[in-house]
Amino acid sequence: MRERRASQGVRRAREFEAFVAGAAGRLLHTATLLTAEPRDANPRARRLLTLALAHTYAAWDRLHGEDPYDSARRQLVARFQRTAWHQYGSFGRRRACPDHVLAALTPQERLILVLRLYEGVAEEQAAALLGLPAERVGAICARAMATLLHPPRDPAPALEVAPS
Hints:
Strand content: under 5%
Helix content: 55-70%
Mean pLDDT: 86
Number of helices: 6
Shape: elongated
Number of strands: 0
Order of helices and strands: HHHHHH
Oligomer: single chain
Largest sheet: none
Low-confidence stretches: 89-95
Structural class: mainly alpha
């Protein structure tokens, strides 16, 4: 009995290692886009990924034919939502790295944009994952794209008029 459990543990570890070898790079890039951190300095993204992979490993035997990448992505999204909610309060604005192109977006806009455009998740699936109506997901995605394509301009400096 012990030998069978040990061999199952070894098999499970090998399967998970193979999954991580193939998927961790893309998942890390997704997490980096979500946190709007630079690629070379992304501690929040790495923490999100580590927690998502740990949960995926814990649930590995219960996946039963389900795509482990989808499971890890769901965990990544859920953890990002929770940290964004707690750190930024109701998905408020915070610029992690002002130079990052996605830093101008709210965490919710980044999340939807990354899911829809980078991960290729259908609008209905993204809506179900986030607990939002599909129309709302579409509107947020459109607003995020508009913000990226037409960034708000800084107000023009006020002209000082010399007293006469």
